[in-house]
Amino acid sequence: MKKKIAIILPYKEVYSNNNAGAASIWLKDYNRLSSLSAETIIYGNLVKGIKPITNNFKNINISTTTFSKTKAYINFFYKDYLKHKYEIIEIHNRPEYLNFLIKKNIKAKLLFFFHNNPQDIRGSKSIQERINIINNTDKVFFVSNWTKKKFFEGLPYETKSNCEILYPSIKKNKTFNVKKKKQIIFTGKLNSSKGYDLFGKAIIKILDKYDDWSAIVAGNEPREKYDFNHKRLKIFPWLPHKKILKIYQNSSISVVPSRWEEPFGRTAMESSAHGCATITSNRGGLTETFNNDLVLNELTVNSIYKNIEYLIKNPKKLKKIQLNNFKNPLHLLTDTTNYLDSVKLNLLEKTINVLKSKGPRILHISNFNEKNNHRLFNISIASKLSNGFIRNNCDVINFSYRNYLSNNLFPKLDKDIIEISKNYKPDLILLGHNNILNKNTLEIIKDKKTKIGLWYEDHVVNYGPNWQNNLNLVEKNHEFIDKYFITTHPSVIKTKINKNKLNYLPIPVDPNIENLKIYNNKHRYKDLFFALSHGVNYGKLRNKSNDEREIFLKKILNLNNQIKFHILGINQDSPKWNFDFYKEISYCKMALNLSRGKPLKFATSNRIASYIGNGILTFIDEKVQFQKLFNSDELITYNNENDLIEKILELKDDLKRINKISKKGKDKYFKIFNNSIVADSITSVALETSPKYNYVWK
Fold this sequence. Notes:
The chain is an alpha/beta fold. The strands form four sheets. Strands 3-2-1-4-5-6-7 form a seven-stranded parallel beta sheet, with helices on both faces. The mean pLDDT is about 90.
């Protein structure tokens, strides 16, 4: 099988059973469970004769180099890449390797894992270096939230959509050892950074006082020497990982008193998952390793002693903590492996393909996106409606006014519309999201045979952005306009326009535009998608843009760490459009429909069609009242941030249910809001003809 994925370890990382570090142990476990292991090769450096942990290992021999080992190591890999053309390259903890490959402009997708504090690693110490990593890497993973925060410290944004936490993980143990020994264990480097000096003093006091308890220490440290001796204290050098796990299984208490800001702390995670009551310091990411009730807020000999003694004196409490740690490990290998596989499989998939395209005569005057070179084709209501008219056997002329506006040719615009109307004799002149014709022009083109309609998609009700300007625009020359079609329900609009003229306009879907079936994508690895529409005219975030939705988004981002959010349009993550939008949304299982302003009856935006129409489960505020149009197995409503989070958590791991809701939602939306139906609702109302369909929003 062709190797598609290359993994590069630091050349000093020991990828063997003896002396394997945390990164190697995690990679070994992931590789053995991954569905992609046969397509993956792991690059590292091992001394001749040492057997690697897994078979898909390729040794880079740099023992003979007289130059920089780092440069020789990555150069060797680069030459191999040119031979094999890997599609994904995964780099662990060495930004230097990543930066080298970025400069080579390789075509492979790049993943990077930070196992340590990014500010302490060469190649990511400076703010500019970290920004460069973000901008040139497909995915950046951090072993803890603490590590991620260190990465973004000093950066002009708090996070980025391609940066996320991927915790080291473990297999869930099947059996709990009910006959645990009265034994306390310390594993790791025997130095002050790991708090071994404090532990040693505390454990001697414990063993002196409690004759039925013993202790084990496993590790070494040639640079620091501590001489702790007791007849019930056994000190071992480095032990194979399997032996360490066996000791955890037999031990009652584990102590991890690090002074060092631990990026994660695998010993704490493993010992707790094997049923130890684990005592940790509060440094770095240690508190993220498991549900810890035993935190050393003070790193002193006395604090360690008191915490151990508390457990010894309270055997029922000790047993309760042990069982809880065993039954509820936080980071399971199966979940992490499936997630990372999904990320890679998604990156390996090819780009999604999209797009295709007489009765009444319709002159449709709108913006058909020439200004943006049709960058927004997938959210163009104007195009969707025109396609719908054509499908309904209407004859349509699409007239774009954008060039007239940009060149300040208003007199010519009105003159040309008069001429076209005279030549074409339209049954309906439809003003699409504009009211730019002057009063005299409207008087000339309007007669008994020609009706004038206007559709509008932005806020015209108090509580929405620019609502008053929008309403003023819509109301202009209202006496000459026969019918209005507005994406806010008429019942909530306060206007001088005759209420009989007002009609609701649903956001339509077009089978040639909303043609994805995201529910069929097996490799979605993000839970919830949302994109703010800052910079809709420019394709990038506007400086000093202000949007109240950011408050809501930041609230939900801070409410739960377990949800994988994919939110664009904030923190300098630019929104995406057209095919880029489809690519971004295809990563996700669910999406949030969140519009600016106060939620009002049926008031929404193009976002709802892009979501549901492309087959992704969608959440919408219940105050929008879409539950009157969709059932709970087609669309999910929420009433506040906490309710939203609760429902996301309930659904996020149930892909079967998500897919079922997504498919039913898409089917329903196309049934009631496809562009043929919406277009017919406009022509039947404006021209006072019999409708072809039953309009559920009436």
